Description:
- By secondary structure, the protein is an alpha/beta fold.
- Helix content is 51%, strand content 19%.
- Helix 2 (33-52) runs antiparallel to helix 3, helix 3 (59-70) crosses helix 5 (100-139) and helix 17 packs across helix 18 (500-510).
- It starts with 7 loop residues before the first helix and ends with a helix.
Amino acid sequence: xxxxxxxPEDRLRRFATIxxxxxxxxxxxxxxxxxxxxxxxxxxxxxxxxxxxxxxxADAGRAAGAALVEAHCTDPEALSRTLDCVDAYLVLYxxxxxxxxxxxxxxxxLQHAMAAGFAQALRERTLAEQEAVARAALEAQGVVxxxxxxxxxxxxxxxxxxxxxIGIADLEGNVLQVxxxxxxxxxxxxxxxxxxxxxxxxxxxxxxxxWRLYDELVSGEREHYHLEKAFYRPDGTVLWTNxxxxxxxxxDGDPQYQLALMEDTTERRLLNLxxxxxxxxxxxxxxxxxxxxxxxxxxxxxxGEGQRFGLCYLDLDGFKxxxxxLGHAAGDRLLVEVADRLQACATAxxxxxxxxxxxxxxxxxxxxxxERTVDELAARIMNALLAPISVDGRELTVRGSIGIVEGPxxxxxxxxxxxxxxxxxxxxxxxxxxxxxxxxxxxDARAITRHGLTTALxxxxxxxxxxxxxxxxVHLGDGSVRGAEALVRWLHPQHGVLSPDRFIPLAEHxxxxxxxxxxxxxxxxxxxxxxxxxHGGEALGPLRINVNLSPCQLTHPGLVQDTVEILxxxxxxxxxxxxxxxxSALIGADDDLLKPLRRLAEMGVDxxxxxxxxxxxxxxxxxxxxxxxxxxxxxxxxxxxxxxxxPVDLKIVEGIVSLAHSLDLxxxxxxxxxxxxxxxxxxxxxxxxxxxxxxxxxxxxxxHELALVDATG
Length: 713
């Protein structure tokens, strides 16, 4: 029998054990390692809870970093080992079943917060020491000159025992005394440091006010100053310090010495630089990440008058296929190679490349002439992707789609620019990919509107924003109304009435077409029943309702059952319903797709082949399709609006009608707009027609009126 898996508390304890073993050797404490582990356990729990919290809180990381200082982990090596341990094991032992990518991002932010908390606590501790030293120094202002032994002993104890570097110099800048900590920081002996002039320690990275503050202090105009300063060590390396310099006066209040207190911040600075790099660069490719790119883009957009920007938004074509076929490791190697090539494309001043995530990259160019340079940058990127990339012994061809946005600085926000570039990139991808497109404000507006409609669709049905209009189907022989086609509309709160071509493709893409189609079917059948109940089936004749089915509905397993239930609930016979399916949806359809249509046809539901003549289906396939009606596309009737009609079109329609009738199929024609068209179609043998000549789509009451007028003569 296998052992039970470790619980969260066991994994938390294991993380604390690993942490304590890593940090204990560089900790100044009298505790044993197990005792030290117990002290780290609450900190581990704090980090674990912050890692998995619903909303991220950096205070937990800062508190954990400060607690390390309280636990005497003041050596910079202790912080470095802690961060390495958190980076390697926190997600592993405390992440449970969370999203690994999100947990790793949180872990990195926790590390940054821990470093900040550690630095703040260490600084407060150091400042406390500095204050104690300064107090002792001030109390011992006359020590050097007057040799007051009791005070000098106290000062000497603080001077030599302090963890920070301390140096005393005269007002001319000559070093008189240094303590052991300062000697170790510089790697020099006391003899080598004594006698040196403070003014020799100029560094190129000195802040502009550094030496002005120094001159004011030695002249007695200020009592102290504090700043960050770099020094060169003898081996050429740089020592970074938090430097506090104070003026020491004699008993009469005259300036006599200067006292320098130095905290070595070199390791902390390097650590902060590393954390800053990790926070602003992509871990896989080394390119700037989304956050860093947004900073640069906002800076470019905030540039002065006359400045412009150009942005290329790149998405690799078919990258998912690489991941699916070769694995994510191969996909990562491909991304690294692409990143290297892109980096080589943006080397001019004002240019940068970043990875936004996945296989999406951006390239930015700035300056007064980006209208030209952004096109050149996009061309370089496309050329850089031409050469195949070798991954695991395979030569992979990489292509990409680029959306370009260019314009003057100061007119748009970074989010608006990136959204426009994203929209334009997808426009390039929709056009076949392996190309770049320029942003078009009108296309952006249409895409934004489509997105708004897509997000509003799921609740629109619940809010009752859809309604149905009906267009009559008229018998060409006697002009009687035989039924109607149900056409759904969307009464949008902002955009008004929207036709199906505005939202049906979006509904198909989101899957909402299934519940929407079911609603249209039920409402239409109920309306047909209401017509019969209110006006009498015998007077109006057997009115039939035509309802369109999308390809998504055809593949939905509940199609047949939903249709049967709706007919039963409304009390309508199956022959009162005709389901219209586009020709393109049935091209190459196999038996599984045709099975639900056959079952419905066997029940008595008519199946109409809509938009017939627009696809490339073999006419011989009509025999295997369970259809009873051919619905000719309106393109066949357009030439009949002219007189005389094109004889070739007439022959085509005549041939289709003859073929349909030989297969016992009725023929309906769409788009009839004139009486001449209607007469010509009657002569050719078409059965029913619909179009504006008879009536535009409208409310159900209009069909009542047309049908009643027809029934009463």
